[in-house]
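User: Could you check the structure of this?
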Amino acid sequence: MASISNYRGIIPAISCPFTKDHRIDEPALRRLASWLAEHERVVAVMTNGHTGEVFSLTPAERAEVTRIVADELRGKLPVISSIVCEGLAEAAEHARAARAAGAAALDVMPPHHWLRFGFTPRHALDYFKAIHEAAPDLDLVCHVYPAWTRASYSSSLLADLARLPYVQAFKVGQRDMNKYARDIQALREADASKAILTCHDEYLLASMVQDIDGALVGFATFIPQLISDLWDAVKAGDLKRAQAVQAVITPLKDAVYGGGEPTGEAHARMKAGMYLAGVLESATVRPPTEAPNEAEMKALRDALAQADLLAR
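Assistant: Sure, the predicted structure tokens are below.
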């Protein structure tokens, strides 16, 4: 099991290729993982995120995805596996399964019943504690949901989580720039050693220039080099270069995400884009997620052509 000594850089949330009959396509998943590892700024890979269609995967399949990617990247890059569960006992089971599959860290998404019913700070702290106790040798990454949801963490709760020794990084996606800035300040004041990673796929440049440590985004499974180039320009303080790279990214972002946030259909469009770019041999998604229509495919082709990435 590879440990994670460096969260600072680009961490793709990997897509999960499927065969035509909707099984996990292990050879394609291995090829994708190895391709991502070839990019210099990529410091880890995350499995079972929304981009990986986690909600369509059974618990056994989630562990299998992590096992495949961790085995393929053994000795190259560590793997973070997302925990997407509803209760403490289930989360502990998933944590142990991810650890056995080779994960070096766990991304902790809020339980989705919180989206409907809300939660208290104690709920969140107990949830992280239960996952830590199930896999005490693995780092935890706090996955921060948009500010408009009922699963949004307050700045004070994020500070409390940052003080936990087993929470080492924050995947922040507030989609509210005022709260984003306040949360970054609260995290830095609580423990400046903890890594802060944007997951604002749809406005990377604006979120990168907030004195953060990198990006943990599904978009990086599609265009890791462009996102790495953007990060390099931001770190160098070269705004003109960063704007030029973002200008190439923006049509791709629009073709994948439209005017909104990531969704299942956005991830289907991303898979189609990866197919058109020659990254994947198939753009199959699991139902009920729908494949792109003709107009969406044309937008993807046009965006890839302007970025000189169109292969099909």
